[in-house]
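RETRY 2/3 - previous attempt timed out on the joint model. Re-submitting the same 664-residue input unchanged.
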Amino acid sequence: MRAHENQICRRRTRAMTTITVPQVVPSPVEDAEALMKAFQGWGTDEQAVIYILAHRDAAQRKLIRQAYEEKYNELLTDRLQSELSGDLQTAMGYWVLDPTERQAVIANAATKCIDEEYPVIVEIACANSPAELLEVKQAYHAIYKRSLEEDVAAGATGNLRNLLVALVSTYRYDGDEVNGGLARSEAKIIQADVKNGVTADHGELIRVLGTRSRAQLGATFNCFRDEHGTTVTKALLHGSDPTGYARVLRTAARCIADTDKYFAKVLRNAMHKSGTDEESLLRVVVMHAEKDLRAIKDEFHRRASVALEQAIAKETSGDFKTFIMALVGTSQ
Amino acid sequence: MRAHENQICRRRTRAMTTITVPQVVPSPVEDAEALMKAFQGWGTDEQAVIYILAHRDAAQRKLIRQAYEEKYNELLTDRLQSELSGDLQTAMGYWVLDPTERQAVIANAATKCIDEEYPVIVEIACANSPAELLEVKQAYHAIYKRSLEEDVAAGATGNLRNLLVALVSTYRYDGDEVNGGLARSEAKIIQADVKNGVTADHGELIRVLGTRSRAQLGATFNCFRDEHGTTVTKALLHGSDPTGYARVLRTAARCIADTDKYFAKVLRNAMHKSGTDEESLLRVVVMHAEKDLRAIKDEFHRRASVALEQAIAKETSGDFKTFIMALVGTSQ
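RETRY 2/3 succeeded.
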């Protein structure tokens, strides 16, 4: 079953990637040598670094890391950190990692500051397939010698903890089967908890959101909308939110209900504010470029009435702009 | 990493199995034919069925199931159900299943009656390695088109649900690393929740028990004993237990603290009562015969001052006795 799931993933990945890889790719050793050349001399040649690494897929970047380490006896990741700076340093630091390890590293950083970084935890828990989330958790074990679950659990309390821990823990069923009667009864359960307000015990709502399959939750959300004339997300907007639990709940509901729409919204918010939120921008682009960024771009275009690359071009500058534009699929 | 974990599992399995397989094993087709012969004629030849199936390992039984189905165009599992009866029917029904599927089937039955069958859920969650539990959950998806998590969550409420769902959900870290400072501080957390009684919110205790690695919990339990002069399990004995949560908590703590000792105790209890508890007896024997029953037998012998096979011989009779005795490793 896992092999089958992985196959579906890979198929989706190939179709949805936004990066471009040259028809004839240099050998990993040639790329490693070109990178070293870009590091040497007066100042780093950032454009050369981007020209290479933004146009290699995950498997190719892994081989380049290995070739670089063998040839120069230092980690490419370390050298990049010392050669680059600012947002480019952060973005490239994440980009060169193995995609699964990258998510583990980003999740770990978020567990240290869940109040602010909760969207990262929610995205990793809800936008990955169950098989992908499992791989992230396995990478987390290997790197940190702890579980993602225990680090998330230790960083929050109350409803907030119960929700986040359920989201990262559950190995959800990934099939399309839907139980209509269950969807109707659980839409009522959600409504009851929503009505009680976010300071009440949300055990039932968290149970539903935290354990049901994505297909089942889609059916439940539809029943809710049919019954109440509004979406679960909008129904969750009312009332005070002293612990920050309600915004996490909304984030999770939106990410589960429509992942592409959710990420399109994160990108719009990142570029709507006075001053671009580079961190959210680079997180979404770096984490999704090789996965589903094409669909997110389409959704962004539909909703923002401007192409993602145009929006990014307006909001970013310098080497960071070059890099991010390369990942979203338009060369400057 | 998974391959490595599986390797450790397999090593442990080979050393700990209590079943005996003949040096020269008939082909799966020959075994299937011998089974059909045992089914035909006046009444089933139960001894012949046991003689074959109790002395084949999981891989061999799988091949026999396949050969039987190909040759006779019916499921061996179905035929066994119609040919056998009573405890032998139940025990053999579980035994012929693939070990991982068997756990999924047993877990599913338990989710329908968690108040009574909670030990089954606890055992599957806590006595398996994280990799083994994951395999059970994957088998559960495949058979029931749902997750184990959602079925457990739907069958309980309050502290009881939070605990059981945490136990079945978390993909625990499986390494030996222990954080001593954390063990000391979390021993205090456990003590605080124990002191508050089982009707209080046990969020912290459930977080610790539900997410930390087995090694870390071992260290925490040791700190607790050093500090309070009693074990966590014994400290949990006091106070009323209106929801049945406390007994589940104790079961989980005992199963995590010392799995062999826990199962030895389940077997002693199964044979201590007026009238043997055949269901618990066959569950432990069938589920552990090919895994760790040798260690459980040793522990039983130490604590009961009688060998497990002697105790079972005294408490059982007929074909069921023959079968269970074959699985625990002594021929009659």
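The first helix of chain A runs from residue 2 to 16. Closing ticket.
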